[in-house]
Amino acid sequence: MDVPSAAATYPHIVKQPGKPARLKRQPRTRVAMIVSDYQQRGWSAEEIVRQYPYLMLPEVHAALAYYHHHEAEVDKELAEEWAAAEKGKRKETTPPVVARLKALKAKRAA
To answer: Is a pLDDT exceeding 90 seen at residue 28?
Structure first.
């Protein structure tokens, strides 16, 4: 089945090739962010608007409709974000100030 372009079917959504789908009026808000709240928090469209008052209900509904027609694309984006977050949690980094304090403590103990 051939899916129409985002502009024709989803008036509140902007989708540029190679980039995540976003809200037209709020370009920093990605469709995946709305879908994440819908799936992981179990929020309805109305609850999402209550939690993020800068969003309009038609925008949230458009984002969810876009998701249901492009599940693989949005699911891939969410999976990549999850993997990056998990990788970041596993990667142990010590802030420079902590490293200096530990070195001073070790030097004084020696």
So the answer is: yes
